[in-house]
Amino acid sequence: MLGNIVPESTPLILERTLDSVRLKANSDGECFGGEITDAMREAGITLRVDRLDILLTRAVLVQTMESLGEEYPAVVLQDYEHPMPVSKALRYLTEAIDWTRRRKLSDEGLRSKDDGAGVLSANSAGEQSL
Questions:
Q1: How many CB atoms neighbour CB 42 within 10 A?
Q2: Distance between CA 14 and CA 36 in Å, rounded?
């Protein structure tokens, strides 16, 4: 669903968010979901990306959290009352980063196949005319 609307800035936003969440963890190794959202917003502002890019990046994270079994990810990302293990937050962010990288590689692979197919068909046509 999100494949066509993932901004180019998504991996950068997620990586900066990951770094920030690591630093903000409390002494018990916990953080709040709302802190993840705050860190994502701060990362987007630092990178000078559009607010829509930040919201779309958040949607990627929500989708990733759902795929990893979180029942109410949007609620978790607004929560400042119930701490979560920072390891869980890092797992969500790492998986979202990996997903965006895999998506980018597959998109590049499809583009190169499309480009290669066009060259191949042009060469085939040229060979046939000789």
A1: 15
A2: 10
